[in-house]
Amino acid sequence: MFVDTHCHLTMLNLEPYAGDLDAALQQAREGGVSKFMGISVDLDDHIALSEIASRHADVGYSVGVHPCEDPAVMRRASVEKLVELAQAEKAWALGETGLDYFHSTDFIPEQKQCFARHIYASQIVKKPVVVHTRSAKNDTVDIIRAEKSTHGILHCFTEDWETAKAVLDCGYYISFSGIVSFKNAQDLRDVAKQVPLDRLLIETDSPYLAPMPYRGKSNEPKYVPYVAKALSDVYDKTLEEIAFITTQNFENLLKQQ
User: How does 77-88 read in b/e, with b if 16+ C-beta sit within 10 Å?
Assistant: First the structure.
């Protein structure tokens, strides 16, 4: 059974399911997906995500603000507010937070401060932090180290081995998306091969980054086995072994204190 550790359940293209998210989740289950973590990008996303999670025993969610959000939105994510929202039983993680200098370098101080607050809140509630980094790997690692963050996921990993090793040394897990299956992603597969199996996670980041052979189409949780398949080739393991390993890793992450 597979776990989609990072899916934007409020953003999926539900046209194939006549607008019915439950039908999309059910199709993913029929393909072997046994757990889903819906990811917040805005502080208010928890409202819809908590409602979805209340209807599905296999769905949890994160609470937090994406670094590409407006600084006014980031400022709403105080430590106190994040801790309050993260107390919910189905709130499995904080985030997604982090740094993104690809889309904007106008608000770097605000991004850094918001990232640090998410880490601090995660340490208080003893739940993992989900970290996004793009064109900001050095500052991302520096903040993780400075805040002594040891409980988290570097999601949708696309960086080099130096970055991977740095966060692994901090205690983080590394999650790969459909990008690892792309034909032009051999460098990423070479990095993935060095990641210890007990720190490996898989995700779709749906509706973005659909894996091969669906690249360019709208992504959804039912495609997470294709990410696992790409990694099974990288590690020379069976698909069933990668499914078991990554599922157990996610359970270990959630149990970690």
Answer: bebeebbebbeb
Q: Which pLDDT tens digit goes with each residue over 17-57?
A: 999 999 999 999 999 999 999 999 999 999 999 999 999 99
Characterize the bridge pairing of strands 91-100 and 129-134: parallel
Q: Give the tokens for residue 158.
A: 């696309």
Instruction: State the helix-helix crossing angle for 108-125 and 79-86, rounded to 10 degrees.
Output: 40
Report whether 45 contacts 85 (CB < 8 A): no
pLDDT band, residue 180 (cuts 50/70/90): very high
Whether this model's pTM surpasses 0.90: yes
Q: Residues, the chain, total? A: 257
Q: Which residue has the tokens 């439950």?
A: 22
| Six-digit token string for 212 | 């091969």
* Phi, psi dihedrals of residue 59, rounded to the nearest 5°: -115, 130
